[in-house]
Sequence to fold (238 residues):
Amino acid sequence: MTNGYLTFLDYLELRRRVEKRLAAGNWFLLHIFVFGIGAALIGIAGFHAIYDPDEYFYIFPQYGHYVSLWSGVLLAHGLSTYWRSGARAGKRDVVIENEMRERLQNDDMYLSDHPKDLFRLHGLLNDDIRKRASLVPTLLTFVIINALIWIPWALSGQAFTSFAWNAASLLVVPFLLTLVWNIWGRARHESKLRKQLEQLFGSRSSEKDAYLERETRLSAEDDEIVTVDEYMLKRKRM
Fold:
């Protein structure tokens, strides 16, 4: 019987090869954190401490323009990451197909070479990578909302107000909660994945094992391995 743990390791290797050809989103996530910290530092640097009833801002407007420009760069980074990531169905399908075709051509396919198993493997891998890449569109959603706050605010001539600073700060807590939820869901998904692999491939005998099972039997009289034909001939002679 196929070892379930080895099956799991073989699948992880195949998945690693596929994900290596896709944008993982790690740099995008890092960019978001850097943006958040950088925007906070810019806000502190531009803090207007002198109270004036004729002014409607507490952070100098020109500092907000810097953050608005940066939010546009962050949005472009997010769109580029999504386009090259496993979250986009078209890109994901192409990479999986190319990887599996290459493995088959090199006679280096993992897990199984049965046609039905290959279709199941393709579907499982597609769904697995889609779920693992689900963080990318989630991050992109927050980045789009952030850009819709900063860029129109700067272009509309409203930079003398503190609207964007207040509105953007409201995204921090929902973003962190969503990130924690996604990480938890990803860990739960990994635990279910091994059970799926065991159900699909772990309980199946290999072609070689099935052949031996059909062609050999243990003789009870002399404890030797014989073919089915030899065993039946020996039974007739008894």
Remarks:
- The first strand starts at residue 216 and ends at 218.
- The chain has a mean pLDDT of 78.
- The CA atoms of residues 232 and 238 lie 10 Å apart.
- The chain has ten helices and two strands.
